[in-house]
Request: fold
Amino acid sequence: MSQRKKERDFHNLSKPMNITFNLIAGIFAILCVFPFLFVVIISLTDEGTLAKNGYRLIPEKWSLAAYRYMFDMGDTLLRSYGITIFVTVVGTVIALLVMAFYAYAISRKTFRYRNFFAFFSFFTMLFNGGLVPTYIIVTQLMGLKDTVWALILPLAVNAFYIMILRTFYATSVPDAIIESGKIDGAGEFRIFIKLVLPLSLPGLATIGLFSTLGYWNDWFNALLYIDNPNLVPLQSMLMRIETSMQFIMQNAQNSSLSLEAMRSLPQDTSRMAMVVMATLPIIFAYPFFQRYFIQGLTVGAVKE
Amino acid sequence: MKRVGEFFQNIVRNKMMLLMVLPGALWFLFFSYLPMFGTVIAFKEYRFDRDGFWASIVNSKWVGWQNFKFLFSTNDAYIITRNTLLYNIVFIFLGLVLSVLLAVVLSEITNKRLSKVYQTGMFLPYFLSWVIVGYFTFSFLSSDRGLLNGVFNSLGIPPIQWYSESKYWPLILVLVYLWKAVGYNSVVYLASIMGIDKSLYEAAMIDGASKMQQIRAITLPMLRPIITIMTLLAIGKIFYADFGLFYQVPRDSGTLYGVTNVIDTYVYRGLKTTGEIGMSTAAGLYQSVVGFILVITSNFIVRKYDKDNALF
Reply:
């Protein structure tokens, strides 16, 4: 096998082509990472230098003041972190439970109503009621406005993930195993927990990661449903700072009060530092999880 | 009577499975099917009633197609449809070409470890939220501090007020979209290239085919199924725009609405800022119905030519 591989490599690209290909891929990869590095640099720049020179790749004067300021103001940032972590953890657990059960049931040929429920889920991918009716039902029928559930429930179920999971069960959990469980006298639930779950862990991990990322990065539900400043998740907080900043800037000339308000808002460097703090967990985590995302993508492309 | 009995027997026999689908089914009911029913608001003059949701729906006055008539009598309907479609067409086309190109490039790079490093870099933008991406773009485009105006300044070019000049935004939005999506998509295509039978390439090499000939005769044809599926999915969603891209990246700047307003942002603003519930629901329903027709049609066409690659 290794002999064959070597041979293939030997016949591979000519040298100039290889260099060109490396350049294309390398430059694009750098472009993808660059904005993040740039924001890190801005967050480490001295605020006075920033006012004079603007954002620069190599600042005249470095400073850690932004990070110090952030830890001083602690509360708001910490609370937002807390909300985001809570929503992400609880949301992912709920999402996984609900979708794992649903997908498993519709993957079982012995389930009489499997086709009905498969279609019940699938149809939501084709047609939806749109934003306004959803908003009205979530706020007026379910009364979720300004509750943490408004951040968790709307993202809990996704028909596409259910499809991926069902395909996963169908391909990686042999019917024979379930039959053997039945013969041993185990109930459906026991079979699922003891026999099916361990076999489907890679699939669940993939969906779990998609969910985690979705919750961590969500700002849209907070934009729709959350007014209470104590319930604002991280991404949404970053957005709100920006909006209030613009508002004050626009009205800065009109009143002296806003000047006071402006001083209390975090400055450019601190805001960029917050962006870095919101991104850092992802930056550290994603190279390890990349494989699962690719797996999920390829599984999703396969029909049953 | 016998049939009813049979029905209950079936329920009992499948009770564990039914319990398993129950939470998910309830979710679909509340978050998908009730909103579908709620689109009747598009044909009503919605008034919130103190007795709650059902009373509000029942007591609101029927107005027939009036909301739609208003929507399509404004210039907005044309602008948001045009923007949504044009951007998506450009996104689908450029996204496909660049992702496949990049996937082929990545698969051919001799040093596999370097190739992995490039992939990891390209994958990063996919993991970031649009809020973060909005900050990134701001660091480039801020009119007084941004990198671009800084560079312009040192070259003696007068600075540009990026967030109030709409002529640059089609280009900016396309670039930002490609930046975020191409790396991720190319990794999808790369995964399928890796799945191609190696003996095909060996046979081609023995026949003396050059690398370019191999790419054209083996790699691209083998990618056709996945390209069809991905493009089909994208065409089905061509009436849906990425809200984050069009809302966060231009920082909701009013002067840019002409080139940044898409159906999704229009519906959102109708709901949250201007409060035109009826018209906004009408726009949403218009999007859903046309979107539905598009998925069905594109799937039908693919089915006709290539049954294995159809979605359903």
Summary: Residues 1-10 of chain A have pLDDT under 50 and may be disordered. The CA atoms of residues 173 and 196 of chain A lie 7 Å apart.
